[in-house]
Amino acid sequence: MCGIVGYVGFREAYPVLVKGLHRLEYRGYDSAGVALVNGNALNIYKTKGKVSRLERFAETQNVGGNIGIAHTRWATHGEPNDVNAHPHCSESGTLAIIHNGIVENYAVLKAALVENGYTFRSCTDTEVMVQLIEYVRSSNGCTLLEALQIALRQVVGAYAIALIDKNDPDRILAARRSSPLVVGLGNDEYFLASDATPIVEYTDKVVYIDDGEIAVIDRGKPLRVVNFDNVESTFDVRRLEMSICQLEKGSYPHFMLKEIFEQPSTIRDCIRGRINIEADRVTLSGAFDNRERFLAAQRIVIVACGTSWHAALIGEYLIEEMCRIPVEVEYASEFRYRNPVIHNSDVVIDLSQSGETADTLAAVELAKSKGAFIFGVCNAVGSSIPRATDSGAYIHVGPEIGVASTKAFTGQVTVLAMLALTLAREKGSIDREQYIATIRHLVQLPQLIEGALKLDGQIRELSKIFTYARNFLYLGRGYNYPVALEGALKLKEISYIHAEGYPAAEMKHGPIALIDNEMPIIVIATADSLYDKTVSNIEEIKARGGRVVAIVSEGDTVVRGIADYVLEVPQAPEPASCIVSTIPLQLLAYYIAVNKGRNVDQPRNLAKSVTVE
Ligand code: M6R
Questions:
Q1: What are the domain boundaries of the chain?
Q2: Nearest C-alpha to atom 12 of ligand 1 is from which residue?
C-alpha cells in the first residue's frame, strides 16, 4: 500500500512524478503529495483525495524543479487528511520524506524526539522517521547518508522511503526494508518507484533494491547502493519486459473490464513455451528442475491471501488429484502467526499476484527459516516474493491494475495446473490419456474463455435485475467451490454488496435459512462429476422460493428447466472448466458495480498491493 515515486535529472520533475502517481494509484488513493526542490526552495504540495485533486491544487502553484519525490497514500497511522498526506517535512523544513510501510516502534522514537524538543504536525509514523534523521544529523554533525544509516538501524518495521534535502538539490536517498523499491536508470536521469510502472515509459533499465539497502542517487553520477553499515553492494541492471499499452485502459472504461477481456491472450502468454502441443508435453521448468524436492515432499503447503488463496484451493484439488501428494492451503496471515509445524521436507508454494503481499512474504521467510523448499507463483516480475523464494514460476499475465484481481486468478490456476501435470508425469501418478486430455484443454482455454466472454451483453442486462439486492450467495462444488468464493469476493469488493461463497452441499447446514426471494443465489452447475448433486442443491433452493442464476455448460437442459436465469459457458473438463466458469462471475460483479456507480478500479478502503499486515 502507498506508492512512492522520485525523479532527478534534466526534465521538469513534476509531470514525471504526477504521471507516476497515476500509475501507482492502485496502491492507495486516499491522499497524494509531491515535494520539489527548486533553487533553494523546498516546495511541498499535498492534499486529501486522489492524484487528480492534487493536480488541480498544484495548477496554481510553482511546480518547477528537476528533482522531486511524490506519494499516493493508503492510510495506516492517522486519518486521510491534508496534514497526514506525504511528503513529510523535518522540523527545520530542510528534509522531505515519502514512505510506504509501517514504523512499528514509532511511538517510542516519537517520545524520545519530543523530549528533545521536536514537535509533530501529523499523526503519521513517517514524520517520526524524517525528524529522527534530522535529529541524528544535527546531533552527530554527520552527513545525511550517515544520519539515514544510523536512523534506520533504530527503526523497526517495513519501509520503502525516499528522502531529499533542499540544500542538496542533486541527490535522492532511497532505502527499503520489506517494501518494494525500484530505481530506473535513464541517460543522465534517474527514476525511483514502488514498481516499474512509472518508469517503463522513460527507460527499460532498472535495479531492484534489496532489503537493508540504500540507493544513493546523484544527478550525473553512477548509481551507488550501500547497506546500513555503508558497505557497497553490487547490483544487477535488469531489462523491463513491460509495455506502456499494458498500463493503459485503451478503449475500455475500466482496467477491470480490460483485464477480464484480456484473458484469452493472457492465458496464451501463460502457457507459451511451457506446453508443447506437438509432443503433448507440459514442462513448468521451475518445478521440473526441482522435481526431486517436490516428489520427496511429505506434503505441499500453499500460502496466499484473497483471490490468490482461492486459486490455491483449486491448486490443492489439482495436485492431490494428479500427484497424490497431500496439500494444505493456508491464509498467509494465519500461517505466519500460528506457529505452524513445518518440516524441512515440506514444499511451500507462495501464491501472489503482486509478489509484495506482506503476510505472504512473511510466510516465505518463516517457512525458509524452518528449511522448507519455497516455490513462488507470482505475476509481478522482480517483486519481493520471487526474489525471496528458492524457485518459482511467473504467471505472465501482464500488469494487473484493477484492484479486483481477474486475469491473475485465471493465470494462477493455469500455472498450478501446469505444475500439477509436470509433477504428475514425473511421478507417474497420472495416466497418459488424462495427461494428454488435460494439456489439450489447457491449450484450448483461450478459445473457451472467448466463448464465455460472449455472455457480456446478456450479463450486462441480467445485472440490472440484481443491482439493488442486499445479499448474494454463491454456491459451487468440487473445483467450483473456490470459484464460488471468488465470485462472492469480486462482488463484495467492487459493489460493496454482502456476498458469501459456500460449498453447495454445506448450504443445508446453515445458509439455507437465509433463502428467500430477495437474495439471488448464483450456482455454478457445469457438466462435471458433481453435476447431479449440484442440480439437487438447486432443487432445494427452488423448493424454498430462492432465485437462482445458474452457470451451466452449453446445451444444458435440466438446470435451464429449474433455475430462474442461466448463463451458458463452453463445455470443458476440469481444470479448464472452473477457469471458464469464473468469467461470467467477473462480468456480473463488474456490471453490478458499474450500475451502482462504484469506483470499480479503485474500490473504497482497498489497495492492490497489501504491503502492510
Ligand atoms: O498480490 P496478492 O495476490 O498477494 O494479493 C492478495 C490479495 O490482496 C488480493 O487477491 C485481493 O484479495 C484482491 N483485491 C482480490 O480481488
A1: 3-246, 250-450, 456-595
A2: 306
